[in-house]
Design brief:
Layout lengths: L1 H5 L1 E3 L2 E3 L7 E5 L8 H9 L4 E6 L5 E4 L12 E4 L8 E4 L4 E5 L1 H10 L17
Antiparallel strand pairs: 1-2, 3-8, 4-5, 4-6, 6-7, 7-8
């Protein structure tokens, strides 16, 4: 379901992203130490339950408030449990985090004052 909706991702790059999907990747340096604010944004949009897919583990559904949207040694993907998911988040090993879905991109841009400065150019923080 994820691949048909959002493409195949690795290291901040995607293959097969459907043309109607919009994504923006930023460097993780712009994010606060805690990503609790992402859970608050999702919950405010009615996404209180989400699906988490990790690189080396089984996928499962959890409360948005309990999600850790960081790279933990395993790349992570999050989306709405609905088959018609309108958003996704992808944290990679390349110090990148990708936001998919117009409303989520707009919310992240509004929430992070330096969002545009940290549009992804590569893993090295010196590029920003």
């Amino acid at each position: 379901m994820f691949r048909s909706t959002w493409g195949t991702w690795y290291g901040g790059a995607v293959e097969g992203l459907p043309p109607e999907r919009r994504v923006v990747t930023i460097h993780t340096a712009v994010l606060p130490k805690s990503t609790e604010f992402i859970a608050r944004l999702l919950t405010a949009q009615g996404a209180s339950r989400i699906v988490e897919l990790r690189e080396f583990d089984d996928g499962f559904e959890l409360d948005a408030a309990d999600a850790n949207f960081d790279y933990t040694g395993a790349e992570g993907f999050w989306m709405n449990p609905s088959a018609a998911s309108t958003w996704m988040i992808y944290a990679s090993h390349e110090a990148s985090i990708t936001f998919g879905g117009q409303w989520l991109i707009e919310e992240m841009r509004r929430s992070l004052s330096e969002f545009d400065r940290y549009i992804y150019k590569g893993w090295h923080a010196g590029l920003y």
